[in-house]
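Please review this pair:
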Amino acid sequence: MAEIDFMSVLHKSTKRDYLARVNDPEYPKAKAAALAKKFDFDYWDGDRRICYGGYRYMEGRWEKVARAIAEHYQLPPNPKILDIGCGKGFLLYDFLKVIPDAEVQGIDISPYAIANSKEEIRDRLQVGSATLLPWPDNHFDLVISITTLHNLHSFELDLALREMERVGKTNKYLCVESYRNENEKANLLYWQVTCEAFNSPKAWQWWFDQTGYSGDHSYIYFE
């Protein structure tokens, strides 16, 4: 298991006004979170003050992440790749640009995301939960989960980490939100709208040890 950063290149490209997020007169934090946690239109394509404000495919945005991951891991020909929390499937679509012969699969809790996913790979995506993956043991050559598992309560997180470990062979990578100090913790609390697992890196490591998760990981910090 190693800490490997594939995501900061995207995360740090966004400017954030934390206090404005909390105090917005139309969508104050509590209202925005209540809407976002439905993982429906408002979360993906509604007002930016709720969440993404229009989650659309941008050419090349996810390809740099897919390429970095593919270059890091030693994958066999025709690798089986699973994305847990795949959203609209943009990362998986770009994986096929990097590894054209890959067999990609995605799962997400949001019916809206799957219904509005990248049309070219929609038949490889399905609605489902990270806590109960519909694949046999050791099925995938690479399992990834990016900015998803921190949205789970403790009783779900335990199951999800065990499931991720179960369906993957050797190569696994996840990215979750975290904090290293009180400033980052406050910013995380101000900015997030769906996070349920507020863990420091040390606490996340406890979860990995507790569940037997053997893959790699990285953290998103709100500096």
Observations:
- The domain at 8-220 is CATH 3.40.50.150 (Rossmann fold).
